[in-house]
Amino acid sequence: MIRNLSLARAGVLAVLALSGMVAALATISEAPDAQLLLPKTTLPEPLAIAVEEATLPAPASFIREERFQRGDTVATLLARLGIGETDARALARLPQLRLFRPGTTVAADVRPDGTLVSLSFLSPRDVLVRVERDGAGLAASESPAALTTRQEMKSAEIRSSLFAATDAAGIPDSVAMQLADIFGGDVDFHRDLRRGDRIAVAYEMHTLEGRALRAGRVLAAEFVNQGRSLRAVWFAAADAEGRRNGGYYAPDGKNLRKAFLRSPLEFSRVSSTFGMRKHPFLQTWRAHQGVDYAAPTGTRVRAAGDGVVEFAGRQGGYGNVVILRHGGNNTTLYAHLNGFGSGIRKGARVAQGEIVGFVGQTGWATGPHLHYEFRVGGTARDPLRMALPAALPVPSADLPYFRAQGAPLLAQLDFLSGTRIALFE
Ligand SMILES: [Zn+2]
Predict the structure, then answer these.
(1) Residue 412 C-alpha to ligand 1 middle, in angstroms?
(2) What is the pLDDT of residue 28?
(3) Which of 20, 81, 137, 400 would disulfide-bridge 108, Cβ 3.0–4.6 Å?
């Protein structure tokens, strides 16, 4: 508390010294209560700015930036930007302005009388749209945006849920979802997360003129789950035809992709709220030869592995159920579904991760949940305890290249783990 107070005071003093208004110091430093130091009225900036404004010519125009929000119309956004009615009407007639989406940031250069000098924004397909004066009217032009990509590194410790941790660390949702996918063959994110688990991640961030626009691909990640450290590095290995198929590999070259996902339930911000608590519908696996996942109705259910649809329809206590046949005489079953994924019918091929249906409570179910079974040669097996075969490792010919490419990323993960340990010790 005392430390905060002196910091606040130091901040105020610095501002005062910079403004050259040392005379004000005496009155402020005598204030008995730290709270009194901070009201805006005691800060000298307004006065300092007023002096500068008086000596400078009035600017010819102002650049403003506004974000298109849910519920906005083109007209409300243009009004916030200070664009006058005549130009706003002309702008609203341009087809390009129909590309505004919630989150689109629009910059406008506007004269004090509301006349538009120029307006620009990035369309959802990375096209930079620019509107400028053209004689008496306005003209729009489009050009591909020169996006640049930089690398970001973040780490987080899980205290309540994965998303709470990634939010706190400023890690974008799309990166959190990728992490759940990358480690989805080893970890059931609905059941296995524990308080104290840690993540460190390096990912691409696409930027425009230095500003972060959206996250790209995860390049490397570490997930420490219940004391077990898992690491993944993105690598695109060339196949026989020289095509490069990217995937995530452990530092020794093993593929992180498994023949089956640990959990067929899609991990999302909504379903993740169930991740840390006891499942109300969880019965022992032995009792009914399946695993139950409580989840909100409509949560997406994914094919645990590549396969063919053997059955999709209604079946007694299962309600709406999908049965998939996989290689090696394995089948998986998804029951109590609210509905089926598009194209899910007998004989259809599905790839791992494809949506087979949505969580519901059809059949004998007392609440929305997914009943999941895994059978090997017709015999039910506990999917939570099975050793799962992995996809192919990095080809041995590619290993030197893989190691060279992965080394700096792994060093960064080491660095992140190291700084974190230092912080907690
Ligand atoms: Zn069940």
Answers:
(1) 43
(2) 34
(3) 81
Distance 184 CA to ligand 1 centre (A): 21
Residues 305 and 354 in one domain: yes
The secondary structure of 165-203 as a DSSP string is: HHHHHT--HHHHHHHHHHTTTT--TTTS--TT-EEEEEE
pLDDT of 114 reads: 93
User: Considering its fold, how many domains does the chain have in total?
Assistant: 4
Residues of the chain with pLDDT under 50: 1-54, 273-284, 286, 425
pLDDT of residue 154: 93
How does DSSP classify residue 265?
Answer: B
**C-alpha 291 to ligand 1 mean position (Å):** 6
Distance 336 CA to ligand 1 centre (A): 9
Residues 377 and 347 in one domain: yes
The last residue of one of the domains, among 144, 171, 187, is 144
User: Could you give the CA distance from residue 58 to residue 67 in angstroms, rounded to a whole number?
Assistant: 26
Residue 379 CA, ligand 1 centroid: distance in Å: 16
Q: What is the pLDDT of residues 217-232, one digit of tens each?
A: 999 999 999 999 999 9
Q: Report the pLDDT value the prediction gives residue 115, as an integer from 0 to 100.
A: 93
The helices-and-strands tally (H runs, E runs) of the chain is 10, 19
Task: Please give the distance, rounded to the nearest whole angstrom, from the Cα atom of residue 112 to the centre of ligand 1.
Answer: 67
Q: Does 171 lie in the same domain as 315? A: no
**Of 27, 55, 83, which residue constitutes the final position of a domain?**
55
- How many whole angstroms from 324 Cα to the centroid of ligand 1? 17
37 and 28 Cβ atoms separated by less than 8 Å: yes
User: Within this chain, do residues 234 and 377 fall inside the same structural domain, yes or no?
Assistant: no
Buried b (16+ CB within 10 A) or exposed e, 180-200: bbbbbbbbbbbbbbeeebbbb
Ligand 1 centroid–CA 371 distance in Å is 4
Distance 331 CA to ligand 1 centre (A): 16
Residues 276, 376: one domain? yes
Q: Which amino acid is at 140?
A: A
How far apart are the C-alpha atoms of 67 and 124, rounded to whole Å?
A: 14
**Predicted TM-score (pTM) of this structure:** 0.68
Say if residue 277 is in the same domain as residue 337.
yes
Q: Separation of 290 CA from ligand 1 center, angstroms?
A: 5
Summarize pLDDT for 248-299 with one digit per residue, the tens. Answer: 999 999 999 988 998 898 887 765 543 334 444 444 454 568 888 888 899 9
Q: Is 328 a domain residue?
A: yes
Are residues 175 and 130 located together in one domain of the fold? no
